[in-house]
Amino acid sequence: MSRALPSSLRLFLLLVVGALCVTSARELLGALSRPDLPMMWWSARAFGLLAYVALWLSALFGVMVSAKGAGGLLDKATVAALHNRWALAALVATALHVLAVVFDPVSGVTPLAAFVPLASARLRGPITLGTVALLGMVGVAVTTELSRRLPRWMWRAVHASAFGTLLLALGHGVMTGTDTSSSTMRVFYLVSMAILVGAVVQRILLATRGASRRRAAASPQG
């Protein structure tokens, strides 16, 4: 049955089921959100961190796909599959993160603020970064599903914006996460971005080397 449904519809149904589960458990989770047991806060932070890791891995494997499996070191089909799977995981984790934040009675973040930039009454800047990152992820997912109907340049432009989405998500996490003061988290953020930058640099070097070889092959032999 799952093969008969488009992947976009399966994703939508998954998010709907998740929303219904969280809504049905709202009273229980609200009761657990005591100052000595901030259940919803921990849930929001856990899903937020998971969303960042999944988005980062999706971007990393995406760079490897365009670099033909990191220059042939990895199987390109496997890398492409990992890129797609982590992109889906990032969407699901982000949806659960947003739901946990909205249903947290002490967060002060309304559903409007979660989806409309600059609509939050508190932490307006950091929340807006997260909102724009969420909209960016949705935009990339939608254009990916419609990639066969869109001009190639449009799809590539929107897909490339995933790097900006990752940076927005990073800024959102750093500015809103109370655990950012931890040296472990700061090192984690720095190392993750350094690895991604290294992958991008490798991609550029491989493209430059390939262009040089093509020019040398096309030049007349003396």
How would you characterize this protein structure?
The chain is an all-alpha fold. The protein is 78% helix and 2% strand. Strands 1-2 form a two-stranded antiparallel sheet. Mean pLDDT is 77; it is low at 1-5.
User: What is the count of DSSP helices, taking H or I runs of 4+ residues?
Assistant: 10
Radius of gyration: 20 Å
Shape: globular
Average pLDDT, to the nearest integer?
77
Pick out the low-confidence regions.
1-5
Could you give a short account of the major beta sheet?
Answer: 2 strands, antiparallel
Helix content: over 70%
Strand content: under 5%
Number of strands: 2
Q: What is the CA–CA distance across the termini?
A: 63 Å
How are strands sequenced across the largest beta sheet? 1-2
The topology string of helices and strands comes to HHEEHHHHHHHH
Structural class: mainly alpha
Whole-number tally of structural domains: 1
Concise structural overview:
This protein is mainly alpha-helical and 222 residues long.
Task: Describe how the helices and strands are arranged.
Layout: H1 7-24, H2 26-32, E1 33-34, E2 37-38, H3 39-66, H4 68-72, H5 76-103, H6 111-115, H7 124-145, H8 152-160, H9 162-176, H10 183-218
Antiparallel strand pairs: 1-2
Observed structural traits:
mainly alpha, two-stranded antiparallel sheet, 78% helix, disordered N terminus, single chain, 222 residues, 2% strand
